[in-house]
Design a protein that fits this description.
It is built from five helices and no strands. The protein starts with 10 loop residues before the first helix and ends in a 10-residue tail after the last helix. By secondary structure, the protein is an all-alpha fold. Helices cover 55% and strands 0% of the residues.
Length: 155
């Protein structure tokens, strides 16, 4: 394809002729991937951030809007508070996440609305005590019945 476009010939028809001639000569028959489907994830639309998206997919990363990330963090914090080894730690976890929730409530959200309010620390602490009491009662019942609570097998 070293020849130049002749004057007066439209560029598109000249390129089409070059491609037809190369096909006739068989220059496209031994290309890598010839006759195979396009690789997964190949999109025909142009996206200038395609390489970032592929890198994030390879690395298993995701990016959430700040409000959704905080919502997820708050749910995880509540679960961690219920599983905390002491009431003091449960209160600290809930208090820390409440600070973040309040900050987000009083800022205009950059993404979808948060739709949350801070947790009631006293209510979480009360539920933590109830769960702990119930778990201790189950452990005592299992111990009295002669089973090991760690794996449910007889002692």
């Amino acid at each position: 394809m070293t020849e130049r476009k002749p004057p007066g010939v439209p560029f598109e028809s000249w390129v089409d002729k070059q491609i037809r001639d190369a096909e006739r000569r068989g220059e496209f028959t031994q290309l890598p991937g010839a006759g195979k489907p396009l690789p997964a994830g190949t999109d025909t639309s142009y996206d200038e951030l395609w390489w970032i998206k592929q890198k994030m997919a390879r690395e298993g990363l995701s990016v959430l809007p700040p409000t959704l990330a905080l919502r997820k963090e708050a749910e995880d914090a509540l679960a961690a508070a219920y599983a905390a080894p002491s009431e003091r730690i449960a209160r600290k976890i809930v208090t820390d996440v409440n600070v973040k929730i309040r900050d987000m409530m009083f800022k205009p959200p950059p993404g979808p609305p948060l739709g949350m309010k801070p947790y009631d620390v006293e209510e979480v602490a009360r539920q933590w005590r109830e769960r702990r009491t119930a778990a201790d009662a189950d452990t005592a019942t299992d111990r009295d019945a002669g089973t090991d609570t760690s794996n449910g097998s007889p002692v």
